[in-house]
Amino acid sequence: MQVTFIWHEQIDGRWSQQQKQVTTTGDMTILRLAREHDIKIDATCGGRGRCGRCKVVVDGLLNEISKVEEQLLTKEELARGIRLACYARPLGDIKASIPTSETELLQILTEGSEQAVAAAPDIVKQFVTVEKPLLETPDGDRERLLEALEQSGQKDCQIPLQIMSGLPEVLRKEDHQVTVTRWGNHIVAVESGDTTGELFGLAFDIGTTTVVGGLIDLHQGKELAVAARLNGQAAYGADVISRIEYASNGTSQLRRLQRAVIDTLNGVAAEIHEKTGISPNKVCRVVIVGNTCMQHLALGVSPTYIARSPYTPAFSNRFDVKAGQLGLAVNPEAPVTFLPNVAGFVGGDTVGVVVATELAHQKGRILMVDIGTNGEIVMSWGGRMVSCSTAAGPAFEGAQISSGMRAGEGAIEFVEIGDDIEVAVIGKTQPRGICGSGLIDLVAELLKVGIIDETGRLQDAAELQGLSPELLKRIRLGEAGNEFVVVWGEEAADGSDIVLTQRDIRELQLAKGAIRAGTMILQQVLDIKDEDIDELLLAGAFGNYIRKESAMQMGLLPQVPLEKVRSVGNAARVGARLCLISQGKLEEASRLARSMDYVELSGRPDFQEAFMNAMLFPQITCESAR
Amino acid sequence: MQVTFIWHEQIDGRWSQQQKQVTTTGDMTILRLAREHDIKIDATCGGRGRCGRCKVVVDGLLNEISKVEEQLLTKEELARGIRLACYARPLGDIKASIPTSETELLQILTEGSEQAVAAAPDIVKQFVTVEKPLLETPDGDRERLLEALEQSGQKDCQIPLQIMSGLPEVLRKEDHQVTVTRWGNHIVAVESGDTTGELFGLAFDIGTTTVVGGLIDLHQGKELAVAARLNGQAAYGADVISRIEYASNGTSQLRRLQRAVIDTLNGVAAEIHEKTGISPNKVCRVVIVGNTCMQHLALGVSPTYIARSPYTPAFSNRFDVKAGQLGLAVNPEAPVTFLPNVAGFVGGDTVGVVVATELAHQKGRILMVDIGTNGEIVMSWGGRMVSCSTAAGPAFEGAQISSGMRAGEGAIEFVEIGDDIEVAVIGKTQPRGICGSGLIDLVAELLKVGIIDETGRLQDAAELQGLSPELLKRIRLGEAGNEFVVVWGEEAADGSDIVLTQRDIRELQLAKGAIRAGTMILQQVLDIKDEDIDELLLAGAFGNYIRKESAMQMGLLPQVPLEKVRSVGNAARVGARLCLISQGKLEEASRLARSMDYVELSGRPDFQEAFMNAMLFPQITCESAR
Question: Closest to B143 (Cβ–Cβ): which among A133, A135, A317?
Fold first, then answer.
């Protein structure tokens, strides 16, 4: 039988699709087969069915879906033909597409929902034949073009100055036949001849840490390429609050932050140009999601009062500008829309998630949690939606943790404790530290074996019973209380021990307490108990990476059965994309943002108590509860 | 009796009004009185009642208006209390205002018509109290401001990005009380506190040679200051056609011409700032008139096809942009309106003249001629208006004439021939050349004494009878036919003779032929004979300076009695000013431009013949006809 591998590769700076057909007898998993033929598939755990990273999109006859895949893949992923290469075995001729990146995977993941939304963007192209000028009628070029548009039913169109300056040449190049790109009555482009065949837009998600952009074919609603970069504002502070502080120092600081993120967006656009060969100048529509602060900074609007009670943004409804006003390197007349914000800390990104997950149209009691430095939470029931935001701090991103680090090469991202501790490291190198998902795993496992108690205290080795000497050896007295050695120095990249300190655990308790308290308050507002929750959606990249069991184990989330938990990936960006290809979705976003209730946690007397309770770890572990 | 002189003087770079009271017995003219007290009044002819330049605005009892003043001043000027200082004598206490410049005089001249137009600009200021933000309502600053505007009846207002960036601070500076400047539903400015007391606009006339601007108090419709500069585009060609050629070389050339005129406008605005102390940033409305080409260049829009048959402009209706888009150094959000163009060579300046002179509302048969490098002509009768443009060339500006020069210091601007020739020189220095008005005088006088015949031939001295030997001596054979020595070298600034050559006369014949042929065609179109013309308006600075008799003598204008001829000065700029202070006038300008018929002379088979006939000089002189 034949297996056709399909993947993307960068050759001479351009991305192109590669394909390789190999023959197999069906006794090998896709992962092993790929390795034999030097085809790269990412698998942190070495193919042991633990990391869940070796996702491939398959088409054809394969072995049955394994228990491990059922655990590590969502129903949605399974429904879309995604399998783990380490478990999937071909039983006939198959095709296996290997995602080159998480974003490409997300693209595949979300294709389904977008197919369902018909491509009907708010920007259109129209081929127009303009009257030629005559000696007797001294009408201007502009007036004759507008006349032609009016005859086709488009009244009161506006041609911006930028387009006017070259209009005489554009009109005459192809004998007064032009293609007009129109956004409402705003003319975005006038091109010689018939270019109605192509219409492109960009959807951006500006995260505090990462910026992701996708080029969309607006006729077909298809994503043609995706690129991601670190937000260039990182140099001015890791989190939203420190950036607001910096921007509040003065106009030049605000401008600097704006410049930094616009440069990032332009970098993403340039990379997409490299991948596709489609000139950014052909991009005539942009939709951007981001948290409220990121939106303010990208627009160069003062975010100062977002951070001061009563936490008022400068704008909350959707914001439309021209690309040229932002310095965005696409068609300068392209309208750029920032999705509406609900409040100072519930932004257009959350609205994007709500649009992408169709939260408002779901019948059940659904809780959506987007975990980041700020946790945005939305609880939906019967058409009513309530949102809040809670400051988790950067612990989940590995910051302010003694051995913490971002989820990059050398980060421990997976931890399992049996007789001793076992870790998986991103890039399979020697470990350099622990990232967020590794931390949650670690604490969850330490809770399971009792090394951490429900109050978060790291026990003394003497207090513990029935544990292996390897484990007990790892507990020692550090500078500020007990600490647990995750990796001994000799195995670590820089030769020093990787440890979890008592203080680290407190940081995590604060972070998870904030998230959990937020969900508790929203549940209270709508009077929904944990057991009544029908679905729990985890949004954002973090939601994709953490092990749900561990998150549950440490009490980050309400106690619901694991099968009710679903990762929806970077749903914010999917929301942006849907709004880009569908005027209906864009208008829905505004309606949703306006109708969504907002609970300001700092204004609630019951928040402090909820927070105190939520900092504790659950007394009963998931495992024992089953 | 007391005479109070009032004038403006530049002291330490700032203009300020000066005043001096002097005592007189009433035996002296105002001019002599002023000179005795070292007060400067311009009088080229030395007070001989010829140049008509010593105009003063008087208030109080004076001697009767003299014949000379009746000849040299228009009825309008006389009605507005303007007298010639060389003839006017106080008979009681009087005030005499001395205009510092032609533009200031025009301002005085046109004050009457503007007083009649109520100040009702299309831009308004509104004091607004905005709701303060609350913890429970996370509405943005923008949304609360828009809500306040909506409550006052202003729906769907748009706040531009530029204003958004500082809005949070502006709102909070004066306790959420702000003044909104609004142009339709476009917000132009938001200022802290109540600034409704002041509202300023700028009216510009962009001439091919000169740019004039006036700062207008939009509440009162009053002009606060005027400044003028040479159009910085002059370096790229003296006339419209050479600038179009330059701009057609490419985008960078077009941009250079745009930059040059915008710099000029900004220079004018800066000078006005100096004079008034009112910051350009407070200017939130601008109206610009200019010929079609000047408008294209100021907007950076390609004028290429204006110069090629069928002479199509890129736009003809009024053009609105934001000041910031042009780089105009006023409030960048200020709307800038260019008055509509009628055709490639009948521009917004002509529309401005029509608005200022209320041509459309006059009952009679009125001919308006604006003489420049291009002559724009409008014939109005019973609500119908027909316009045309005719290429006079730069002869009237002294170009392409052997001893020609611009109307600056050392230019002969006035010529009279008796037994010998007598000239008046601008600045009363030794003459350097002849300017347009001097040329017309000279040719008219030479026609009168027969030295030039009706075909334009400069006669040989031998053919002439009854002329003084001084005059005959001046006729000599030059390099290309006869020439006439206007000033002998010993009296001229550079020691060489100032002459009028046969070729110079031909140039003037071409120029005046073009203008006259244009008027003839329009008269034909409306079937109006010379004797049926009720009024002949001369617009533009040139119309102010030429002696009507001379213009008539040489057949530049239709043969109508002199009292039917009226100079309306820089009426184009007055039109801009009226449109700036009155939305009604601005809308009327668009209606007028659309309803005005246009005759393309080059498309008419009868134009060539009219032109040939019009090049001849009239057989009978004005004097002999009386």
Answer: A317
CA A411 to chain centroid: 20
Lowest mean pLDDT of A50-54, B338-342, B359-363, name the range.
Answer: A50-54
> d(Cα B127, Cα B177) in Å, to the nearest integer?
7
Q: What is the CATH number of domain A123-192?
A: 3.10.20.880
Per CATH, the number for A2-100 is 3.10.20.30
ipTM for the whole predicted complex goes beyond 0.85: no
Structure confidence by residue, pLDDT tens digits, B569-618: 888 999 999 999 999 999 999 999 999 999 999 888 899 999 999 999 99
Contacting residues of A for B251, CB less than 8 Å apart: 165-166
Asked whether the predicted pLDDT for residue B108 surpasses 50, the reply is: no
**Residue A429: how many CB atoms within 10 A of its CB?**
11
Q: Min CA distance, B97 vs chain A (Å)?
A: 44
- Selected residue of A142, A295, A312 to mutate for chain B interface (largest B Cβ count, 10 A): A312
Q: Which of B133, B166, B304 sits opposite A168 (nearest CB)?
A: B304
The tokens describing A162, both together, are 């930028």
CATH number corresponding to B358-394+509-625? 3.30.420
pLDDT band at B101; cut points 50, 70, 90 = low
Percent of chain B with pLDDT over 70: 94
Q: What backbone phi and psi angles, to 5 degrees, belong to A22? A: -130, 155
Q: Are A473 and A582 in contact (CB under 8 A)?
A: no
> Distance (Å, rounded) from C-alpha B210 to C-alpha A415?
80
The amino acid sitting at B181 is T
User: With contacts defined as CB-CB under 8 Å, which chain B residues touch A172?
Assistant: 305
Residues in A closer than 8 angstroms to B387, CB to CB, are none
A309–B135 CB contact, under 8 Å: yes
**Do A138 and B342 lie within an 8 Å CB cutoff?**
yes
Cα–Cα distances (Å) from A176 to A139, A154, A167, A457, in that order, read 14, 18, 10, 78
**Which of A171, A315, A389, A596 is the mutation pick for testing B, counting most B CBs within 10 A?**
A315
* pLDDT at residue A101, rounded to an integer: 56
Is it true that A2-100 and A123-192 share their CATH fold? yes
User: Which chain B residues contact residue A341 at CB under 8 A?
Assistant: 140
Domain ranges of chain A: 2-100, 123-192, 396-508
Nearest Cβ partner of A136 from B313, B319, B600?
A: B600
Terminal Cα distance for chain A, rounded: 42
Q: Is the pLDDT of residue A117 over 80?
A: no
Query: Count of A–B CB contacts within 8 Å?
Result: 147
What distance in Å separates the CA atoms of residue B169 and residue B146, rounded to the nearest whole number? 16
**CB spacing of A600 vs B305 below 8 angstroms:** no
Share of chain B residues as helix, strand and coil, in percent rounded to the nearest 5:
40, 25, 35
Position B231, amino acid: N
A310 vs B133: CB contact, 8 Å cut-off?
yes
CB atoms within 10 A of CB A463: 11
Interface contact A313-B140, CB threshold 8 A: yes
Q: Indicate the helix (H) or strand (E) that contains A501.
A: strand A498-501
CATH number of B200-348: 3.30.420.480
Contact A138 B312 (CB under 8 A): yes
> Does position A493 have pLDDT exceeding 50, yes or no?
yes
Tell me the range of A382-396, B179-193, B589-603 where mean pLDDT is highest: B179-193
Distance between CA atoms of A29 and B345, rounded to whole angstroms? 79
pLDDT greater than 80 at residue A17? no
